[in-house]
Amino acid sequence: MKVVRGALSLACLNVGANISYGLITGQMTGIKPNPVNLNLLTGTQAFADMGTSLLGGAPVETIISATASAPEPVIAGIMMMLMMAVILLLGWLPKIGRYVPASSIAGFLLILGAVVIFPENAATAMQGNDNVIAALTLVITAIIDPFAGLMTGAILKFGLPLIGLGV
Asked: How far apart are CA 60 and CA 51, in angstroms?
């Protein structure tokens, strides 16, 4: 049961990363409203994950890409992918990886989540009509795990009104 809940929690975190990182990248474009189609992003990542999993690779992740702020973001993204392909084909990635400590990446992600993503998303959730539900979901997610928080939010938002108990 712990393995299933852990897998579901990772799936929830993955969806949250898609939303957060996708929207941050969209904000970098400077286009209003945000041009990111989250359904397309999540679907594309799902297909990419299936492909890499079938070939025995690790799942792919959504990232924040500074290429979004380039004058030609699509061309900049393609150029970055081509450079990465060259690095992979030449076998330089493990050599470069020795000079980048994992703790620097973990620290970056911690600061990004705690300082950039969490406060903005928490404030947005608390502004709605269901701020009690948002607060309870937030607390359950922090105390237990992301899947339990997601299920709590879904039950409070959709389940209680179905049985006549609104929050």
From this structure: 10
The terminus-to-terminus CA distance of the chain in angstroms comes to 30
Reading the block at residue 58, the tokens are: 């690790």
**Do residues 141 and 149 lie in contact, with contact meaning Cβ atoms separated by under 8 Å?**
yes
Q: How far apart are the C-alpha atoms of 106 and 110, rounded to whole Å? A: 6
pTM of the predicted model over 0.90: no
pLDDT in tens, 121-137: 888 888 877 888 889 99
DSSP state of 71: S
Residue 63 phi/psi, 5-degree rounding, is: -130, 165
Is the Cα dihedral 148, 149, 152, 154 positive or negative?
Answer: negative
